[in-house]
Amino acid sequence: MIPSEQKLSSPQRSSISYNQKLFSVFINYTAFFITSFAIAYFIYHASTVLIALTFHIPTTWSGEGIKFKVSELEWLKQVVVSVRLIPPLILAASSFIFYRIYRFNKRKAGMIKAFWLWMYLNSANFALGNTVADIATNTGVWEGLQAQRIAPIVQVFIAIVCIISMLIIGYKAGRPFLLSANSRELIKKDNKFRFVFFAVILPWLLGSVLFFLVEFIAAGRANFGIYLSIGLMLTPIINSYASYTEISLVKDRQKRIILLEFIVLATIMFSLFVVVNFTRLQF
Which residue ranges traverse the bilayer (predicted)? Predict the structure, then answer.
């Protein structure tokens, strides 16, 4: 009777262990997404403000975005190009730096490498996704391209290149996300989709909804394009995860399954996002 009970309890212990791992993935990766999205947001907007200030342009940063107190006569070509085109380039450079940091850490144990992967993806999204959204809505980057007298057909080509680049980045990110699991059980054939769902899809959905609601409540509108574009970037991951059959994992010996420091960091960054959107910062 005793051996029989032991056999029945073993699968139960395995199931609980797996569910705990999956729950920790959801919590940690959501914290990674929120933190990385907020950091990319602040890099993009802070660089825009700083560039405007170098031209002595009074600037307001609020939930409605960044507004410039400048007349048409003062809105010179050099100013428009600098203010509108340099921030996406800064984010593009940042995404490359974060990708290099991820590459440096990818063979190390621990889920923290997934944070650098999210930093890379969100920075690339603010560079590429914002460009596509601005061209589509005739704002932001579009104004810089117009000041450079870039033909509309060329602008469309730039948007298409950005979209293709996002899809390629997303496709290439499928394997790194699986590598970040640090547990063969999480990415076994029958478990792969659940891992991708809890590590990629849910963090993006929950994080995007939170940021969107803050912007919408604060200003009555939100930059919907930036949330759709990161979703577009992640789509190839959902379609390609099953094709990766040989994954070499680094065994993680750390006992903690919830990274509390990232929970705290995500809370701080999201709180700063809320404060900025519900106040009017004058520069």
Answer: 21-44, 85-102, 114-133, 153-174, 195-218, 224-245, 257-278
